[in-house]
Each structure stands twice: as C-alpha cells, then as structure tokens.
Amino acid sequence: MADAAAALLAAPPGAREQLLDTASAIMREEDQVDISLSELSLRSGLNSALVKYYFGNKAGLLLALLEREWAEIVASVDALLAKDIDPETKLRIHMARVVDNFFRTPYTHRLLMRMIRESPPDEAQRLADSYLKPLLNAYERLIHDGVAAGVFRAVDPQLFYFTVIGAADRFFSARLVLRHCSETTVLDEGLRDRYRAHLNDFVVAGILVRR
User: Are 84 and 172 contained in the same domain?
Assistant: First the structure.
C-alpha cells in the first residue's frame, strides 16, 4: 500500500484515465484482450503501483476499461433510438457506428465475452444485463419499428444481432488473414470505410422488404 501511495503522490492529473487510454492503445495495436503491467507502465510513463491504487489489480483495470467503452456504446444506441428518423436511416447509421466502434476499439466485444466467461455467475449476469441485453433490446425495437413501418422483413432480432456484431468482430480481428492472404496488414481508415459500406449494403439489403 505504501508503494501505491507514493506512486499516487507522484502521479500527474488524469493518471487514471491515462492508464485506461494506454491499456486501450496496447490492446488495439497488438490485437489482444490482455496487457502486461510492465508494458503499461513503460508506455504510460506511470508507476504500475497506480493500477492497484485505482483499480485493485489488472482485472479491475480491464473491467474499468470495458465499462467505460460499453457505457458509451449503450448511450449512443439509446440516443439513436430516440431520434425521429425513419427505421432504414436509423439502421444505416447504427451499422456505420458499429464499424467505427470496432475500428476504434476492436477488443471491446471480445473483452466483454472474456469477462462474462471468467466471472462468477452473479457478476457475469450483471455484465450481460448492463451491456448485452440493452443492445439486444435495441435490435428488437429497431426491427419492430421497421416491420411496423413496412420497410423491414420480420427477422429474428437476436440472430440479426449476431450477424451484425459477429461480422464486424471477425473482420477487425483478422490481421493474420490480411497478413497471409492479402497485400496489407493494416486496418486503416480506407479499409474501414470500404468495409463500412460493404457491411451496410449487405445487411440492410437483406432485411429490407422486397418491392
């Protein structure tokens, strides 16, 4: 505890967020859902004892990062659902945001799945209730509104969720495929934009009522 207190005294303002931002950068750049505290300390320039002070341990830091990212996602989806726009436009905006979120933090969904899998039952249920169920409920509402408006076919919202999130998650964890089967290993903005248009066209075309 003395080491953590000494580290806190030497820590700059915003050290807690700096640790979270550095952990995010490490997982994004290295395409993984774990970090080394020694690398975190080296990259952030902060004493690793601050992890214990702010988060309890590394698992606590990863949980805090997970909750920061998912709270933003859930809030964004809630705000979109509240907008007075037609269901197709709303779905296309959401699809674009899904791709943008995976591009920005590709580890987020995999980290949530890991936390749910490795947590005690009560904590696993809390995570699911806080972050998975709101998205599933949002998909139910999106599809219900589209069907009611006569623009969407009646599809299973849960399967639709797995289609969208699974496709984006698989693409943004595909650097090994890119490295060995294409001319690039870089998931840059240009590739993100191409994939955003591709996924949007395929998924939205699949749910629209055929006229």
Answer: yes
